[in-house]
Design goal:
This protein has 512 residues and is α+β, with helices and mostly antiparallel strands. The chain has one domain (17-512). The chain has 11 helices and 25 strands. The chain has helices spanning 19-29, 38-51, 151-154, 167-170, 217-223, 232-239, 268-280, 292-305, 421-425, 481-487, 496-510; strands spanning 54-59, 67-69, 76-78, 85-95, 97-107, 112-121, 124-133, 141-144, 147-149, 175-184, 190-191, 194-202, 212-215, 308-313, 321-324, 327-330, 337-345, 352-359, 364-373, 376-385, 393-396, 399-401, 432-439, 449-456, 476-479. The strands form 6 sheets. Strands 6, 7, 8, 9, 10, 12 and 13 form a 7-stranded mixed β-sheet that branches. Strands 19, 20, 21, 22, 23, 24 and 25 form a 7-stranded mixed β-sheet that branches. The longest helix has 15 residues, at 496-510. The termini are far apart. Mean pLDDT is 89; it is low at 247-267 and 406-415.
Length: 512
Amino acid sequence: MTGIRSAPPVLLRPRVDGSVPERLARSAAATDGIVLRTEDFAAWFARRRDAHPFRVERIPFDRLEGWSFHERTGDLVHRSGRFFTVEGLHVTVDEGRRGDWHQPIIRQAEVGILGILAKEFHGVLHLLMQAKMEPGNVNLLQLSPTVQATRSNYTKVHRGADVKYLDYFTRPGRGRVLADVLQSEHGAWFLHKSNRNMIVEALDDVTVAPDFCWLTLGQIGLLLHQDNVVNMDARTVLACAPVAAVPPSVSPVPSVPLVSPEPAGGPGDAFGLFTRALRRSREPGTGALHSDTELLSWFTAERSRQDVAVRRVPLRELPGWHRAPDVVERADGRGFRVVAVSVAAASREVSAWTQPLIEPNGMGVMAFAVRRIDGVLHVLVHARVEGGYLDTVELAPTVQYVPGEFVAAAGEEPAGRPPFLDLILAAAPDRVRYEAVHSEEGGRFLAAQSRYLLVEFGDEDGDDDGPVPLQEPPGYRWATPGQLSSLVGHGHYLNVQARTLLACLNALAGAP
Protein backbone atom coordinates (compact mmCIF):
# COMPACT_ATOMS: atom_id res chain seq x y z
CA MET A 1 0.00 0.00 0.00
CA THR A 2 1.41 3.31 -1.04
CA GLY A 3 1.76 5.79 1.80
CA ILE A 4 -0.05 9.12 1.59
CA ARG A 5 2.29 12.05 1.63
CA SER A 6 1.31 14.94 3.84
CA ALA A 7 1.48 18.43 2.42
CA PRO A 8 4.71 20.27 3.28
CA PRO A 9 4.34 22.82 6.06
CA VAL A 10 3.74 26.39 4.99
CA LEU A 11 6.81 28.34 6.06
CA LEU A 12 6.05 31.73 4.58
CA ARG A 13 3.96 34.35 6.26
CA PRO A 14 2.89 37.87 5.30
CA ARG A 15 5.73 40.37 5.52
CA VAL A 16 3.42 42.91 7.16
CA ASP A 17 0.51 42.23 9.50
CA GLY A 18 -2.10 44.66 8.24
CA SER A 19 -4.28 44.13 11.31
CA VAL A 20 -1.88 45.95 13.64
CA PRO A 21 -2.36 49.50 12.26
CA GLU A 22 -6.14 49.03 12.22
CA ARG A 23 -6.18 47.73 15.82
CA LEU A 24 -4.06 50.70 16.91
CA ALA A 25 -6.36 53.05 15.00
CA ARG A 26 -9.34 51.56 16.83
CA SER A 27 -7.54 52.22 20.12
CA ALA A 28 -6.76 55.80 19.02
CA ALA A 29 -10.44 56.39 18.29
CA ALA A 30 -11.46 55.13 21.74
CA THR A 31 -11.22 58.23 23.94
CA ASP A 32 -12.67 56.45 26.93
CA GLY A 33 -11.26 53.30 28.45
CA ILE A 34 -12.80 49.99 29.43
CA VAL A 35 -10.39 49.47 32.33
CA LEU A 36 -10.02 53.06 33.61
CA ARG A 37 -12.61 55.66 32.69
CA THR A 38 -11.21 58.91 31.32
CA GLU A 39 -13.11 60.89 33.94
CA ASP A 40 -11.38 58.85 36.68
CA PHE A 41 -7.80 59.31 35.45
CA ALA A 42 -7.06 62.58 37.27
CA ALA A 43 -8.09 61.10 40.62
CA TRP A 44 -6.01 57.96 39.98
CA PHE A 45 -2.97 60.05 39.05
CA ALA A 46 -3.38 62.24 42.14
CA ARG A 47 -3.50 59.14 44.34
CA ARG A 48 -0.25 57.88 42.82
CA ARG A 49 1.37 61.28 43.48
CA ASP A 50 0.22 61.21 47.10
CA ALA A 51 1.20 57.57 47.62
CA HIS A 52 4.95 58.23 47.70
CA PRO A 53 7.13 60.99 49.13
CA PHE A 54 9.33 62.62 46.50
CA ARG A 55 12.20 65.07 47.06
CA VAL A 56 14.79 66.63 44.77
CA GLU A 57 17.44 68.98 46.19
CA ARG A 58 20.26 70.82 44.42
CA ILE A 59 23.59 69.93 46.04
CA PRO A 60 27.27 70.81 45.47
CA PHE A 61 29.34 68.28 43.56
CA ASP A 62 31.25 67.17 46.66
CA ARG A 63 28.00 65.73 48.06
CA LEU A 64 27.57 63.37 45.11
CA GLU A 65 27.82 59.77 46.30
CA GLY A 66 29.74 57.51 43.95
CA TRP A 67 30.40 60.33 41.48
CA SER A 68 33.61 62.34 41.12
CA PHE A 69 35.62 64.42 38.68
CA HIS A 70 38.33 62.28 37.11
CA GLU A 71 41.74 63.45 38.31
CA ARG A 72 43.29 63.63 34.84
CA THR A 73 40.42 64.58 32.49
CA GLY A 74 38.04 66.35 34.83
CA ASP A 75 35.20 64.22 33.41
CA LEU A 76 32.32 63.55 35.81
CA VAL A 77 32.24 59.76 36.24
CA HIS A 78 30.63 57.08 38.41
CA ARG A 79 32.86 54.77 40.45
CA SER A 80 31.17 51.68 38.91
CA GLY A 81 32.27 52.72 35.44
CA ARG A 82 28.61 52.37 34.39
CA PHE A 83 25.57 54.65 34.15
CA PHE A 84 26.95 57.65 32.23
CA THR A 85 29.75 60.20 32.16
CA VAL A 86 29.77 63.94 31.53
CA GLU A 87 32.62 64.70 29.16
CA GLY A 88 33.76 67.44 26.80
CA LEU A 89 33.01 67.59 23.08
CA HIS A 90 34.47 69.61 20.22
CA VAL A 91 32.24 69.87 17.14
CA THR A 92 33.18 71.39 13.79
CA VAL A 93 30.65 71.84 10.98
CA ASP A 94 31.87 73.02 7.59
CA GLU A 95 28.81 73.66 5.42
CA GLY A 96 28.69 77.05 3.71
CA ARG A 97 30.03 78.83 6.77
CA ARG A 98 32.18 77.26 9.42
CA GLY A 99 30.59 76.36 12.74
CA ASP A 100 32.77 75.41 15.67
CA TRP A 101 31.94 74.92 19.34
CA HIS A 102 32.89 73.17 22.57
CA GLN A 103 30.42 71.81 25.12
CA PRO A 104 29.89 69.24 27.86
CA ILE A 105 27.90 66.20 26.77
CA ILE A 106 26.48 63.05 28.37
CA ARG A 107 28.06 59.85 27.08
CA GLN A 108 25.99 56.76 27.82
CA ALA A 109 27.04 54.05 25.42
CA GLU A 110 24.56 51.43 26.60
CA VAL A 111 21.18 51.02 24.90
CA GLY A 112 18.15 51.45 27.13
CA ILE A 113 14.67 50.00 26.78
CA LEU A 114 11.56 52.14 26.40
CA GLY A 115 8.74 49.63 26.24
CA ILE A 116 4.95 49.84 26.34
CA LEU A 117 2.94 46.69 27.05
CA ALA A 118 -0.35 46.33 25.17
CA LYS A 119 -3.36 44.12 25.79
CA GLU A 120 -6.81 43.90 24.23
CA PHE A 121 -9.91 44.40 26.37
CA HIS A 122 -13.31 43.90 24.68
CA GLY A 123 -11.80 44.36 21.25
CA VAL A 124 -9.83 47.53 22.02
CA LEU A 125 -6.07 47.64 22.58
CA HIS A 126 -5.01 49.28 25.84
CA LEU A 127 -1.49 50.33 26.80
CA LEU A 128 0.01 49.80 30.25
CA MET A 129 1.36 53.16 31.39
CA GLN A 130 3.30 53.99 34.54
CA ALA A 131 3.09 56.98 36.87
CA LYS A 132 6.84 57.46 37.22
CA MET A 133 8.90 59.97 39.12
CA GLU A 134 11.95 61.48 37.41
CA PRO A 135 14.16 63.99 39.24
CA GLY A 136 14.29 66.44 36.33
CA ASN A 137 10.53 66.72 35.77
CA VAL A 138 9.14 70.08 36.90
CA ASN A 139 6.20 68.26 38.51
CA LEU A 140 8.23 65.10 39.27
CA LEU A 141 5.48 62.57 38.41
CA GLN A 142 4.52 61.98 34.77
CA LEU A 143 3.06 59.21 32.65
CA SER A 144 5.81 56.99 31.31
CA PRO A 145 6.16 53.71 29.36
CA THR A 146 5.65 50.38 31.10
CA VAL A 147 9.42 49.95 31.13
CA GLN A 148 11.84 52.87 31.05
CA ALA A 149 15.28 51.62 31.98
CA THR A 150 18.92 51.85 30.99
CA ARG A 151 20.96 48.67 30.84
CA SER A 152 22.64 49.70 34.10
CA ASN A 153 19.18 49.93 35.68
CA TYR A 154 17.78 46.62 34.55
CA THR A 155 21.04 44.73 35.19
CA LYS A 156 20.83 46.25 38.70
CA VAL A 157 24.19 47.97 38.89
CA HIS A 158 22.44 50.15 41.50
CA ARG A 159 21.57 46.97 43.49
CA GLY A 160 17.94 48.02 43.57
CA ALA A 161 14.68 46.21 42.94
CA ASP A 162 13.82 44.42 39.70
CA VAL A 163 12.31 46.42 36.85
CA LYS A 164 8.66 45.38 36.59
CA TYR A 165 7.46 43.76 33.33
CA LEU A 166 10.99 43.70 31.90
CA ASP A 167 10.66 40.09 30.64
CA TYR A 168 8.12 41.12 28.01
CA PHE A 169 10.79 43.23 26.31
CA THR A 170 13.94 41.15 26.84
CA ARG A 171 12.75 37.55 26.49
CA PRO A 172 11.89 36.50 22.92
CA GLY A 173 8.43 34.97 22.66
CA ARG A 174 7.19 36.50 25.91
CA GLY A 175 4.74 38.64 23.90
CA ARG A 176 3.85 39.72 20.37
CA VAL A 177 6.03 42.55 19.08
CA LEU A 178 4.02 45.35 17.46
CA ALA A 179 6.90 47.86 17.13
CA ASP A 180 10.63 47.66 17.81
CA VAL A 181 13.12 50.29 16.60
CA LEU A 182 16.29 51.97 17.85
CA GLN A 183 15.85 55.74 18.16
CA SER A 184 18.17 58.57 19.15
CA GLU A 185 17.85 60.89 22.12
CA HIS A 186 18.68 64.61 22.29
CA GLY A 187 21.61 65.11 19.95
CA ALA A 188 22.61 68.39 21.63
CA TRP A 189 23.08 66.80 25.08
CA PHE A 190 23.73 63.08 24.46
CA LEU A 191 26.60 61.58 22.47
CA HIS A 192 25.41 58.73 20.23
CA LYS A 193 22.67 57.70 22.67
CA SER A 194 20.04 55.24 21.47
CA ASN A 195 17.07 53.56 23.08
CA ARG A 196 15.08 50.55 21.95
CA ASN A 197 11.51 51.79 21.46
CA MET A 198 9.10 48.85 21.76
CA ILE A 199 5.40 48.03 21.88
CA VAL A 200 4.70 44.42 22.85
CA GLU A 201 1.29 42.79 23.14
CA ALA A 202 0.86 40.52 26.17
CA LEU A 203 -0.53 37.08 25.36
CA ASP A 204 -1.26 36.20 28.97
CA ASP A 205 -2.94 37.76 31.97
CA VAL A 206 -1.07 40.75 33.37
CA THR A 207 -1.07 41.64 37.06
CA VAL A 208 -1.21 45.41 37.30
CA ALA A 209 1.09 46.94 39.93
CA PRO A 210 -0.15 49.99 41.91
CA ASP A 211 1.65 52.68 39.85
CA PHE A 212 0.40 51.31 36.52
CA CYS A 213 -2.85 51.65 34.58
CA TRP A 214 -4.38 50.56 31.26
CA LEU A 215 -5.24 53.40 28.85
CA THR A 216 -6.30 53.45 25.20
CA LEU A 217 -4.31 55.39 22.62
CA GLY A 218 -7.24 57.77 22.46
CA GLN A 219 -7.08 58.46 26.19
CA ILE A 220 -3.34 59.12 25.97
CA GLY A 221 -4.05 61.40 23.00
CA LEU A 222 -6.28 63.52 25.22
CA LEU A 223 -3.57 63.64 27.88
CA LEU A 224 -1.09 64.93 25.26
CA HIS A 225 -3.12 68.15 25.26
CA GLN A 226 -2.19 68.74 28.90
CA ASP A 227 1.09 70.29 30.02
CA ASN A 228 3.72 68.01 31.52
CA VAL A 229 1.64 64.84 31.83
CA VAL A 230 2.97 62.41 29.17
CA ASN A 231 6.74 62.16 29.47
CA MET A 232 9.28 62.22 26.65
CA ASP A 233 9.98 58.49 26.75
CA ALA A 234 6.30 57.67 26.34
CA ARG A 235 5.96 60.16 23.49
CA THR A 236 8.82 58.69 21.48
CA VAL A 237 7.43 55.15 21.80
CA LEU A 238 3.94 56.33 20.82
CA ALA A 239 5.39 57.97 17.71
CA CYS A 240 6.72 54.56 16.62
CA ALA A 241 3.27 52.94 16.74
CA PRO A 242 2.26 51.97 13.17
CA VAL A 243 -1.08 53.78 13.33
CA ALA A 244 -3.21 53.87 10.17
CA ALA A 245 -5.98 56.24 9.20
CA VAL A 246 -9.05 55.60 11.34
CA PRO A 247 -11.08 53.06 9.33
CA PRO A 248 -14.76 53.87 8.68
CA SER A 249 -15.76 50.70 10.54
CA VAL A 250 -14.45 52.06 13.84
CA SER A 251 -17.16 53.14 16.25
CA PRO A 252 -15.39 55.25 18.88
CA VAL A 253 -16.17 54.63 22.53
CA PRO A 254 -18.13 57.66 23.84
CA SER A 255 -15.66 59.98 25.53
CA VAL A 256 -15.55 62.19 28.58
CA PRO A 257 -12.91 64.68 27.37
CA LEU A 258 -10.12 65.78 29.70
CA VAL A 259 -9.72 68.85 27.49
CA SER A 260 -11.12 69.86 24.14
CA PRO A 261 -8.81 68.70 21.32
CA GLU A 262 -9.59 71.94 19.46
CA PRO A 263 -7.14 74.75 20.30
CA ALA A 264 -8.59 77.64 22.21
CA GLY A 265 -9.61 80.41 19.86
CA GLY A 266 -9.44 78.22 16.75
CA PRO A 267 -12.53 78.20 14.52
CA GLY A 268 -14.18 74.83 14.20
CA ASP A 269 -14.25 74.87 10.39
CA ALA A 270 -10.50 75.52 10.09
CA PHE A 271 -9.68 72.84 12.61
CA GLY A 272 -12.02 70.41 10.87
CA LEU A 273 -10.31 71.02 7.52
CA PHE A 274 -6.97 70.49 9.24
CA THR A 275 -7.94 67.14 10.80
CA ARG A 276 -9.51 65.90 7.56
CA ALA A 277 -6.32 66.77 5.68
CA LEU A 278 -4.30 65.04 8.42
CA ARG A 279 -6.35 61.84 8.19
CA ARG A 280 -6.20 61.89 4.41
CA SER A 281 -2.39 62.05 4.58
CA ARG A 282 -2.45 58.61 6.21
CA GLU A 283 -4.82 56.90 3.79
CA PRO A 284 -3.25 54.24 1.52
CA GLY A 285 -2.50 55.57 -1.92
CA THR A 286 -2.60 59.25 -0.96
CA GLY A 287 0.03 61.29 -2.77
CA ALA A 288 2.53 63.82 -1.44
CA LEU A 289 4.40 66.86 -2.73
CA HIS A 290 7.54 64.69 -2.88
CA SER A 291 7.51 60.96 -3.47
CA ASP A 292 9.04 58.72 -0.79
CA THR A 293 12.05 58.11 -3.03
CA GLU A 294 12.51 61.85 -3.63
CA LEU A 295 12.25 62.57 0.11
CA LEU A 296 14.79 59.87 0.98
CA SER A 297 17.13 61.01 -1.78
CA TRP A 298 17.03 64.60 -0.49
CA PHE A 299 17.68 63.43 3.07
CA THR A 300 20.55 61.16 1.99
CA ALA A 301 22.09 64.08 0.11
CA GLU A 302 21.77 66.27 3.23
CA ARG A 303 23.62 63.66 5.28
CA SER A 304 26.26 63.17 2.61
CA ARG A 305 27.13 66.82 2.12
CA GLN A 306 27.56 67.69 5.79
CA ASP A 307 31.18 67.71 6.92
CA VAL A 308 30.85 67.23 10.67
CA ALA A 309 33.85 66.40 12.87
CA VAL A 310 33.15 65.35 16.46
CA ARG A 311 35.96 64.86 18.95
CA ARG A 312 35.75 63.94 22.63
CA VAL A 313 37.94 66.16 24.81
CA PRO A 314 38.53 66.34 28.58
CA LEU A 315 35.85 68.26 30.42
CA ARG A 316 38.49 70.30 32.23
CA GLU A 317 39.88 71.58 28.92
CA LEU A 318 36.68 73.10 27.47
CA PRO A 319 37.44 76.70 26.48
CA GLY A 320 34.97 79.22 27.85
CA TRP A 321 33.66 76.85 30.53
CA HIS A 322 34.50 76.81 34.21
CA ARG A 323 33.73 74.57 37.18
CA ALA A 324 32.40 75.98 40.44
CA PRO A 325 31.53 73.95 43.58
CA ASP A 326 27.95 73.42 42.40
CA VAL A 327 27.92 74.00 38.64
CA VAL A 328 29.82 73.56 35.37
CA GLU A 329 28.80 76.41 33.07
CA ARG A 330 29.93 78.88 30.46
CA ALA A 331 31.54 82.02 31.74
CA ASP A 332 28.88 84.13 29.96
CA GLY A 333 26.02 82.07 31.46
CA ARG A 334 24.59 81.12 28.06
CA GLY A 335 23.49 77.68 26.93
CA PHE A 336 23.07 75.05 29.61
CA ARG A 337 24.86 74.02 32.79
CA VAL A 338 25.76 70.81 34.62
CA VAL A 339 24.47 70.56 38.19
CA ALA A 340 24.03 67.90 40.88
CA VAL A 341 20.95 66.75 42.80
CA SER A 342 20.01 64.52 45.70
CA VAL A 343 16.86 62.48 45.11
CA ALA A 344 14.42 60.57 47.31
CA ALA A 345 11.66 58.54 45.60
CA ALA A 346 10.08 55.62 47.43
CA SER A 347 8.44 54.31 44.24
CA ARG A 348 11.71 53.77 42.33
CA GLU A 349 13.91 50.65 42.20
CA VAL A 350 16.33 52.58 44.44
CA SER A 351 14.67 54.88 46.96
CA ALA A 352 17.47 57.47 47.26
CA TRP A 353 20.44 58.50 45.15
CA THR A 354 22.50 61.42 43.86
CA GLN A 355 23.38 62.26 40.26
CA PRO A 356 24.43 64.99 37.82
CA LEU A 357 21.83 66.61 35.55
CA ILE A 358 21.95 69.02 32.61
CA GLU A 359 19.92 72.19 33.20
CA PRO A 360 18.94 74.30 30.16
CA ASN A 361 18.72 78.07 30.21
CA GLY A 362 15.01 78.42 29.46
CA MET A 363 11.96 76.94 27.80
CA GLY A 364 12.43 75.67 24.27
CA VAL A 365 10.18 76.10 21.24
CA MET A 366 9.58 73.06 19.03
CA ALA A 367 7.18 73.57 16.14
CA PHE A 368 6.06 72.19 12.81
CA ALA A 369 4.83 74.66 10.22
CA VAL A 370 2.02 72.78 8.47
CA ARG A 371 -0.08 73.43 5.37
CA ARG A 372 -2.69 71.67 3.25
CA ILE A 373 -1.58 70.84 -0.28
CA ASP A 374 -4.40 69.56 -2.50
CA GLY A 375 -6.29 68.55 0.64
CA VAL A 376 -3.37 66.58 2.12
CA LEU A 377 -1.58 67.82 5.23
CA HIS A 378 2.17 68.42 4.98
CA VAL A 379 4.69 69.47 7.64
CA LEU A 380 7.97 71.30 7.01
CA VAL A 381 10.89 69.20 8.28
CA HIS A 382 14.45 70.44 8.79
CA ALA A 383 17.60 68.37 8.15
CA ARG A 384 19.38 69.35 11.37
CA VAL A 385 23.00 68.80 12.41
CA GLU A 386 23.77 68.12 16.07
CA GLY A 387 27.02 66.96 17.60
CA GLY A 388 25.55 63.92 19.35
CA TYR A 389 23.84 62.25 16.38
CA LEU A 390 25.20 58.95 15.12
CA ASP A 391 24.65 59.99 11.49
CA THR A 392 25.30 63.75 11.78
CA VAL A 393 21.80 64.73 10.51
CA GLU A 394 18.26 63.84 11.56
CA LEU A 395 14.90 65.26 10.55
CA ALA A 396 13.84 67.89 13.07
CA PRO A 397 10.85 70.20 13.51
CA THR A 398 10.65 73.35 11.39
CA VAL A 399 11.75 75.23 14.52
CA GLN A 400 13.88 73.70 17.26
CA TYR A 401 15.09 76.37 19.63
CA VAL A 402 16.30 76.72 23.22
CA PRO A 403 16.85 80.32 24.45
CA GLY A 404 20.50 81.16 24.86
CA GLU A 405 21.59 77.95 23.19
CA PHE A 406 25.16 78.58 22.14
CA VAL A 407 25.49 75.50 19.95
CA ALA A 408 25.26 76.43 16.29
CA ALA A 409 23.15 74.24 14.03
CA ALA A 410 23.37 74.02 10.29
CA GLY A 411 20.84 76.35 8.69
CA GLU A 412 20.57 78.73 11.64
CA GLU A 413 20.93 82.44 11.12
CA PRO A 414 24.12 84.10 12.38
CA ALA A 415 22.26 85.73 15.28
CA GLY A 416 21.40 82.28 16.61
CA ARG A 417 17.64 82.52 16.00
CA PRO A 418 16.58 79.77 13.59
CA PRO A 419 14.51 80.52 10.49
CA PHE A 420 10.74 80.62 11.05
CA LEU A 421 11.04 81.09 14.85
CA ASP A 422 9.64 84.61 14.91
CA LEU A 423 6.95 83.60 12.44
CA ILE A 424 5.83 80.75 14.71
CA LEU A 425 5.88 82.93 17.83
CA ALA A 426 3.86 85.66 16.12
CA ALA A 427 1.24 83.28 14.67
CA ALA A 428 -2.37 84.27 15.27
CA PRO A 429 -4.29 81.97 17.65
CA ASP A 430 -6.56 80.81 14.83
CA ARG A 431 -3.48 79.38 13.07
CA VAL A 432 -2.41 77.20 16.03
CA ARG A 433 -3.70 73.65 15.67
CA TYR A 434 -1.92 72.22 18.69
CA GLU A 435 -0.03 73.67 21.65
CA ALA A 436 1.21 72.15 24.91
CA VAL A 437 4.27 72.32 27.15
CA HIS A 438 6.10 69.01 27.49
CA SER A 439 9.09 68.02 29.60
CA GLU A 440 12.20 66.65 27.96
CA GLU A 441 14.02 63.62 29.40
CA GLY A 442 13.56 63.91 33.19
CA GLY A 443 16.18 61.33 34.10
CA ARG A 444 19.08 63.41 32.76
CA PHE A 445 17.78 66.99 32.34
CA LEU A 446 16.59 69.34 35.10
CA ALA A 447 13.41 71.37 34.44
CA ALA A 448 13.88 71.02 30.69
CA GLN A 449 10.58 72.06 29.10
CA SER A 450 9.59 72.92 25.55
CA ARG A 451 6.54 74.53 24.04
CA TYR A 452 5.35 72.21 21.26
CA LEU A 453 3.23 73.69 18.48
CA LEU A 454 1.58 72.86 15.17
CA VAL A 455 0.91 76.07 13.22
CA GLU A 456 -0.91 76.09 9.90
CA PHE A 457 0.10 78.42 7.06
CA GLY A 458 -0.72 78.80 3.37
CA ASP A 459 -3.74 78.29 1.17
CA GLU A 460 -5.45 75.10 0.15
CA ASP A 461 -5.04 75.95 -3.55
CA GLY A 462 -1.36 76.76 -3.16
CA ASP A 463 -1.67 80.13 -4.90
CA ASP A 464 -0.72 82.09 -1.80
CA ASP A 465 2.72 80.90 -0.77
CA GLY A 466 2.85 83.36 2.10
CA PRO A 467 5.65 83.29 4.67
CA VAL A 468 6.13 79.50 4.45
CA PRO A 469 6.33 78.80 0.72
CA LEU A 470 5.83 75.58 -1.21
CA GLN A 471 9.33 76.09 -2.60
CA GLU A 472 11.40 75.08 0.40
CA PRO A 473 14.57 76.88 1.49
CA PRO A 474 17.79 74.84 1.64
CA GLY A 475 17.74 72.21 4.37
CA TYR A 476 13.92 71.97 4.52
CA ARG A 477 11.31 69.75 2.84
CA TRP A 478 7.55 69.32 2.94
CA ALA A 479 6.54 65.80 4.02
CA THR A 480 3.23 64.25 4.99
CA PRO A 481 2.63 62.78 8.46
CA GLY A 482 2.16 59.45 6.69
CA GLN A 483 5.66 59.72 5.23
CA LEU A 484 7.08 60.55 8.68
CA SER A 485 5.30 57.53 10.16
CA SER A 486 6.98 55.34 7.55
CA LEU A 487 10.39 56.83 8.30
CA VAL A 488 10.03 56.49 12.08
CA GLY A 489 9.80 52.74 11.61
CA HIS A 490 13.56 52.94 11.01
CA GLY A 491 16.18 54.28 13.41
CA HIS A 492 17.76 57.72 13.34
CA TYR A 493 15.57 59.42 10.74
CA LEU A 494 13.38 61.59 13.01
CA ASN A 495 14.90 63.24 16.06
CA VAL A 496 13.23 63.06 19.45
CA GLN A 497 11.58 66.49 19.15
CA ALA A 498 10.07 65.59 15.77
CA ARG A 499 8.84 62.30 17.23
CA THR A 500 7.00 64.18 19.99
CA LEU A 501 5.22 66.27 17.36
CA LEU A 502 4.46 63.14 15.33
CA ALA A 503 2.88 61.57 18.43
CA CYS A 504 0.74 64.70 18.79
CA LEU A 505 -0.26 64.51 15.12
CA ASN A 506 -1.20 60.84 15.61
CA ALA A 507 -3.36 61.85 18.55
CA LEU A 508 -5.15 64.53 16.51
CA ALA A 509 -5.68 62.10 13.62
CA GLY A 510 -7.18 59.50 15.93
CA ALA A 511 -9.57 61.82 17.76
CA PRO A 512 -13.17 61.14 16.71
